[in-house]
User: Which sequence fits this backbone?
DNA sequence: GCATCATAGACAAACGTTTATCTTGACGTC
DNA sequence: GACGTCAAGATAAACGTTTGTCTATGATGC
């Protein structure tokens, strides 16, 4: 296809005033017509003329001028650590669906967890008169002066609504599944201490295990330490357990990546997943499905988390009351890496 | 940590006027001080007073009012099909790095390839006075009236700069690698006809193969048809080739996902990757590294593509001339799924 | 034939800035 | 003492809208 003609230095943007001048009308009248303002008597004939002229000149009202005196900007500010990795982008995607549907635009900023950037961007967004702030995995120091909803925010802040994964439910699903398959000797992985929701997850795991009468043995607990996103994360711990001849029939991993590492360690020890040992992941990353054996895991409904957060934020902006905290239930995804524990010891 | 105090109905935003009134000065003077306007004589004492008051009231200049008369809004509009999947988010991430660094903010819109939405959002962004448009994997019908850079845009448009992967280079890297390993009978996968850059890739592959003296045999060519993102995409074609007893030592897959499917088919046929057949992917998705055997692949430097596009866009906005098309070189990532062809036939 | 009323539209203020130009008083110079 | 200069700041216009109020003009009522 040949390039189209029109240049992109573009027809200069036409203002209400120019349009009015051309029509021999006042800007006000033109504005009334274009906005279908009520309580104004303007004959259909004039309306036609105005609309045609607007069409002809490709008139676009200046959103800036508009929002200068009307309060509404229909703009949201988003704060997140990094764009492009799976987690944050998916949450943002879910939120974006809602924003677009409700005719809000949003500006995204990323700060790589730098405190001063978080503060700076918050201010800059505010000075652009955003109506609300969506904070994803971001540590806010003070409550912003605009309605705010935080996803996976750490500390509770006055007036800031938190949307978080229901870790209790996650633990129930994971342990419940293993329990039903007959597993009683389960190895546990505990997330790195610096990891954002590592603590709440571990607490929920301990709590649920106790309720179900499952033992969380210290000598079957692996504490992750390395700061990596490769399966190498889960390999050494499980390998060591196997070398020490600890007895267990399943391992509850911190996430899918470490579950893949765990699988490899089991495989390398000459054992089979899931026949000898079941492996349970967390997150449901795309690789969880592709891996062999595909991973049974707990899915975090990231898009849903995003859309719930966005919905709550819009409600707040409209002045409605919303809860301080909203928990989102995860889902159990059963695949190949877990199986019924074998009768034969 | 206990919740902080301050409420988020927030201290009402303070305007220049209010500030000026409080100080007993005119708004203009306050503006001069706060902007360090040159050629204005204002005693240091007054400057101090002004700055202190601004601090005290947490004054934030209204970006909106500012950009109403100055032309600059320092805002970019982004058009993409979908937020949250790997490809687009990574490109956006790379672009965002540049935008943030250069103090531009951006609004992201997604259109799921709906033509009318593309047009509508372009207009809306324009009416918000964006200074430039970044179009990612989006089919633009007409050149927008603002400087525009397109990533993986399909048709060339007058004045729109295109940033694309250098498919020729990609083919050279892939085929060169296989060639060096001794492969001469290679099976090819051709992308679905509806896939965006399927055509240019195939053309480059044919061209490069010819140059290297490699044969692209019709009976070793698999045309993908299913519209799926699961490995199932690559499985049946390769399986069929094996069943038909076609002889080949390597398969050049359309992407990593289909490469995983291909691997499985080979495995299921009782053959080994890479000992019997080498498998080459494309994209370098995260799973490529985790899979067993990990995939040799051609990496699309997505973040780089994004940052190059953003850089070009900013240059255009500054009024500099930039090329109509910019090709980004891919990278060969050698892992376990390819090996030297075995001597023994 | 005059008051009343609806119509069709103009006028002007306001939103929060920036910036060019003007004012005022103090001081210095010859 | 007339004049110019400079400092310190005020005024006002402008950016592109929206919206409350005002004004002509003609039509209607009695």
Assistant:
């Amino acid at each position: 296809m040949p390039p189209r003609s029109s240049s992109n230095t573009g027809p200069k943007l036409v203002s209400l005033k120019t349009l009015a001048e051309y029509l021999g009308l006042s800007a006000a009248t033109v504005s009334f017509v274009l906005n279908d303002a009520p309580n104004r008597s303007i004959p259909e004939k004039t309306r036609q003329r105005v609309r045609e002229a607007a069409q002809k000149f490709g008139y676009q009202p200046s959103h800036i001028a508009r929002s200068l005196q009307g309060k509404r900007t229909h703009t949201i500010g988003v704060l997140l650590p990094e764009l492009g990795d799976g987690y944050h982008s998916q949450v943002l995607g879910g939120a974006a669906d809602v924003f677009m549907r409700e005719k809000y635009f949003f500006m995204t900023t990323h700060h790589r967890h730098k405190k001063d950037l978080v503060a700076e961007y918050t201010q800059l967004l505010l000075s652009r008169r955003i109506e609300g702030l969506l904070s994803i995995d971001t540590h806010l120091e003070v409550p912003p002066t605009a309605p705010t909803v935080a996803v996976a925010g750490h500390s509770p802040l006055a007036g800031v609504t938190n949307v978080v994964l229901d870790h209790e439910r996650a633990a129930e699903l994971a342990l419940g599944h293993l329990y039903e398959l007959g597993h009683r000797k389960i190895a546990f992985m505990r997330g790195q201490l610096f990891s954002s929701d590592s603590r709440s997850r571990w607490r929920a795991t301990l709590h649920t295990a106790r309720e179900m009468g499952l033992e969380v043995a210290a000598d079957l607990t692996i504490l992750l330490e390395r700061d990596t996103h490769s399966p190498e994360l889960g390999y050494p711990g499980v390998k060591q357990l196997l070398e020490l001849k600890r007895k267990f029939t399943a391992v509850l991993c911190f996430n899918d990546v470490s579950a893949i590492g765990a699988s490899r360690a089991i495989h390398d020890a000459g054992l089979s997943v899931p026949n000898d040992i079941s492996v349970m992941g967390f997150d449901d990353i795309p690789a969880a499905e592709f891996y062999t054996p595909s991973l049974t895991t707990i899915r975090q409904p990231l898009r849903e988390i995003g859309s719930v957060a966005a919905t709550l934020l819009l409600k707040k902006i409209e002045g409605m009351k919303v809860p301080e905290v909203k928990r989102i239930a995860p889902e159990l995804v059963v695949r190949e890496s877990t199986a019924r524990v074998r009768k034969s010891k």
Observations:
- Residues 25-26, 28-29, 32, 40-43, 46, 65, 67-70 of chain B lie near DNA strand D (CB under 10 Å from a C1').
- Chain B has twelve helices and twelve strands.
